[in-house]
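Allow me, if you will, to draw on your knowledge of protein folds for a short while. I have a record of one protein: its chain in single-letter code and its fold written as discrete structure tokens. Could you please explain, in whatever detail you think fit, how the structure tokens follow from the sequence? The record follows directly beneath this note:
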Amino acid sequence: MMTVRTTVALTLGAFVAAVTVGARAEAQASNYPSMQVPTASTRDYTAAVSSGAGTAALFQWREEWVPRRHWQLDAGLVDRKGSDNLSLFVGGGIGQELTRARGDQPLDVLFTAGAGAAFGGGSTLLRIPVGVSIGHTFALDEGIAITPYVHPRASIDLASSGGRDNGSQSEVSLNFDLGVNIQVNKQFAVRAGAAFTGSEVAGAQDSFAIGFNWTPAPLARR
């Protein structure tokens, strides 16, 4: 009989395999998954690695603003294949709980809005997404919980480039993430997500990320 920890490991492994097959290898790291579970945070930090056109390091900080609402800061660097330059991406946003799972309905729903920009190679990419993260937490034994979620959003995408190819592009796109959060205990979780984009600005592609989430002990949810 499989233990809970074995079940969690197999679940994460299956998720990683599925989204890795689905995501294209040339994915742009600036189009990274939101890594946003469908509940507001008191305070948490996420460190993740995103794969795609290069290898990206991503850091996220979420902090409670008022009860059931948080603000968020994203920052990271990507080393793109075929380029000698590192690209920087930064972003910020808010999350507001719309509803929590209860007896008559099983879903947590979080409204999200923000803005992010990527800089590098003489070009700039700006995204302004608005959406909702929707999911449900399944509590297991030994304090472990699994939260699968989907995060659809509409985005205004703007891109500009300098040099000889100076120009700009803009469009409104529809995008969504598939993600999973595996809560090992009240403080630590493994979080993974795949971002599927409908944008064609600056050759936007799908992407995948996996990382670790930490909530300081005094602020861990009870």
